[in-house]
Design goal:
The complex is a heterodimer. Chain A is of the alpha/beta class. Helix content of chain A is about 30%, strand content about 15%. Chain A contains 16 helices and 19 strands. In chain A, the strands form five sheets. A five-stranded parallel beta sheet of chain A has the order 5-4-3-6-7, with helices on both faces. In chain A, strands 17-16-15-18-19 form a five-stranded parallel beta sheet. In chain A, strands 11-10-9-12 form a four-stranded parallel beta sheet. Chain B is built from eight helices and eight strands; from the N terminus they run E-E-H-H-E-H-E-H-E-H-E-E-E-H-H-H. The relative contact order of chain B is 0.17. By secondary structure, chain B is an alpha/beta fold. Chain B has helices spanning about 20-25, 45, 85-95, 105-115, 125-130, 160-165, 170-175, 180-190, and strands spanning about 5-10, 10-15, 70-75, 95-100, 115-120, 135-140, 145, 150-155. The longest helix of chain B is centred in the last third of the chain and has 13 residues, at about 180-190. Helix content of chain B is about 35%, strand content about 15%. In chain B, the strands form two sheets. In chain B, strands 1-6-7-8 form a four-stranded antiparallel beta sheet, with helices on one face. A four-stranded parallel beta sheet of chain B has the order 2-3-4-5. Classes of the chains: A alpha/beta, B alpha/beta.
Chain lengths: ~475, ~200
């Protein structure tokens, strides 16, 4: 009688050998590579005369540092260009020969959107990438986590990683999501509850009827932000929704192999009597659309709420941190969030750059106009998302409303390319981090859902999406 | 990798919680294709003004911070992005140990892979160490940090401690014992041929 969690099954099936001190050598099935965290890893291989062990388990694409306009002109910034060219050179090196999706290929996009879209991401696998939001792929019932460049080098050379087993933490979501409230609100609310270090050392499993009813894309949003709760990864057990999403994807198994794979994937779910190290139940019946007010994702409240009062903080240190965040954000203690006028809106990122996210934003913007003076960037997560959106006429909706319709990439989520906030600018953003300077030096970020971002674009201030539905 | 056994040096104190990797090394410096040279950009937005001049109030722009090789920090140090540029910048500045009540997982691993010790101490001990004017001695073998009359035990993850004490190259270690990996792959061709 088995009593294993989804995490236990994924971990146990990938242990190559135990290492001392509670660590194990874990086999890595899938490795996504991008331009920012790989050059030093390839250089390390070159210096040591090593090759890539399993190029067939590796997929590279440039996303962080790529322009989202006038792409046919090439990359203008010389340091950005050198980094992308270095990736292009490395993937062609005879010792490496890594499959690569070029910048002008319609499949190019954010690694965490490309992997699932191509069927490279599969249930039951271990998936790593030199990017913290690799947890996204956990939505498929995979063990997926972000790694640093030294670990990227270890995976390239050996197709394994030394890892410590995580503690298991199940979040059971009950009830049903009210109209205008979705996965982004759910995960922001969760981070507000448990804090940005609330999941440290843990693998989160999202479970319960609310999660089962979510689409794959919404599950990806949920798992994407597990890292913002400090967790090593987030995951959802695969089910019919997962299989329907994957069937027919270019790199997914086909024919008899498909049936064999699905049979193996069906038994990945956590056993009914499995025991987790931690459990939390959330009822979402009364959840309201969320918006962050501060400088980390746990500083979040309902759109109907107000910024906190430092005087009501639990300790002098906590009061100082609240005050520092309010000062940075240019918000008065107790100020209603719906008072805050925005300068910019960003719709995109690995958190919310998929087709359903664009549909959600377009539903609010259809027949409406962006408020005067507000700059709105709509950045599809991949070239295929862009093509799909254009086939549905969403680009026309965005353009008619006064938004900018861009090429795929990470864009203003982290502002490595030209897409940045200016000092003091306030932005409603569908991305994942509201850290100081994240979207540009002294920029002020409010994390929200795609519908909420679109509502802010129309209202010119943070607004309740439910007033626009 | 340079082993870490014991290290003596001056400490800089930044005791706020949740110091994230965007703050340690902002995005514009992630365009480099090298590991070295990031030290001058460490904590860039806190350390320099808009015009590029130093912010005189910032701890690393004053002694002993300017000469520090040990950083004292608050809970959840290194949260956020997986960028290994964060420990590269710390190391290039000269930081060999970060002492904090807790660390974010990915930063913790990245630090160890670069020979930087992430040592865990309660905030009261960190406050006492921050108030001490002279150098600290961080002894990983004994897992103690000493300064004058102060002498505190600290926690180090057992895996991290082993890697740091030996200066272990884990890639070399794995490649030398590759047979189990080959065996795993052979099994996988049977059990999950669709991969």
């Amino acid at each position: 009688m088995s009593r294993a969690t989804l995490y236990d099954k994924l971990w146990d099936s990938h242990v190559v050998e135990a290492r001392g001190d509670g660590a194990a050598l874990l086999y890595i099935d899938r490795h996504l590579v991008h331009e920012v965290t790989s050059p030093q890893a390839f250089e390390g291989l070159q210096l040591a005369g090593r090759s890539v062990r399993r190029p067939d388990r590796t997929l590279a694409v440039a996303d962080h540092n790529v322009p989202t306009t006038d792409r046919h002109l090439g990359i203008q910034d010389p340091t950005s260009r050198l980094q992308v060219e270095t990736l292009e050179r490395n993937v062609q090196d005879p010792a490496f020969r890594v499959p690569y999706i070029p910048l002008l290929d319609p499949r190019q996009g954010i690694v965490h959107i490309v992997g699932p879209e191509q069927g490279f991401t599969l249930p039951g696998t271990t998936i790593v990438c030199g990017d913290s939001h690799t947890s996204t792929h956990g939505a498929f019932g995979a063990l997926a986590f972000g790694i640093g460049t030294s670990e990227v080098e270890h995976v390239l050379a050996t197709q394994t990683l030394v890892q410590k087993r995580a503690r298991t933490f199940r979040i059971t979501c009950e009830g049903s999501l009210p109209r205008g409230v979705g996965a982004k609100d759910l995960v922001l609310h969760l981070i507000g509850r448990i804090g940005t270090a609330g999941g440290t050392g843990c693998a989160l499993e999202f479970a319960g009827p609310v999660v089962r009813a979510l689409s794959m894309e919404a599950r990806m949003t949920l798992c994407n932000m597990a890292i913002e709760a400090g967790a090593r990864t987030g995951m959802v057990a695969p089910d019919e929704v997962t299989f329907a999403y994957l069937k027919g994807r270019p790199m997914a198994p086909a024919g008899p192999a498909w049936d064999q794979a699905v049979a193996a994937w069906r038994i990945l779910a956590t056993d009914p009597d499995a025991v987790f190290d931690r459990e939390l139940a959330l009822n979402v019946d009364h959840l309201e659309p969320q918006a962050t007010w501060g400088t980390n994702p746990e500083m979040v409240t309902s759109i109907l709420g107000r910024a906190p009062l430092p005087s009501q903080a639990s300790s002098p240190e906590a009061a100082a941190q609240v005050q520092q965040a309010l000062d940075y954000m240019g918000i008065r203690p107790g100020q209603p969030l719906r008072d805050l006028a925005v300068d910019a809106v960003f719709i995109g990122s690995c958190t919310n750059g998929r087709i359903e996210d664009l549909r959600e934003a377009a539903a609010v913007l259809r027949g409406r106009s962006v408020a005067p003076g507000v700059r709105v960037l709509v950045v599809p997560g991949s070239g295929l998302v862009k093509a799909q959106a254009e086939a549905e006429g969403l680009d026309a909706v965005f353009l008619a409303a006064g938004c900018q319709w861009r090429e795929a990439g990470c864009s203003m989520c982290l502002g490595m390319n030209e897409d940045r906030l200016s000092p003091g600018e306030r932005c409603a953003s569908t991305s994942n981090r509201n850290f100081e300077g994240r979207q540009g030096r002294l920029g002020r970020t409010h994390l929200v859902s795609p519908g909420m971002a679109a509502a802010a674009a129309v209202a010119g201030r943070l607004a309740d999406v439910r007033d626009f539905l | 990798m340079q082993p870490f056994i014991s290290h003596a040096g001056l400490a800089a104190a930044m005791l706020q919680d949740n110091i994230n990797t965007d703050l340690i090394i902002p995005k514009q410096f992630l365009k480099t294709i090298h590991r070295r040279g990031l030290g001058r950009h460490l904590f860039h937005d806190l350390r320099y003004r808009e015009d590029g001049s130093e912010e005189p109030g910032f701890v690393l722009n004053r002694e002993p911070g300017r000469s520090a090789s040990i950083l004292l920090a608050g809970v959840n140090f290194g949260c956020g992005s997986s960028r290994e540029h964060a420990p590269w910048a710390l190391l290039d500045f000269g930081i060999r140990a970060v002492l904090a009540p807790s660390f974010a997982d990915i930063f913790h691993t990245n630090a160890v892979k670069n020979g930087i010790l992430p040592g865990v101490l309660p905030m009261e001990s960190l406050r006492a160490l921050a108030a001490h004017p002279g150098p600290l001695e961080v002894d990983l073998a004994a897992q103690r940090v000493r300064a004058g009359t102060l002498d505190f035990p600290f926690r180090a993850d057992p895996w991290a401690r082993g890697v740091l004490l030996e200066g272990l190259d884990e890639i070399e270690q794995t490649l030398r014992g590759i047979a189990p990996v080959e065996a795993f792959e052979a099994r996988c061709r049977e059990t999950a041929p669709w991969l």
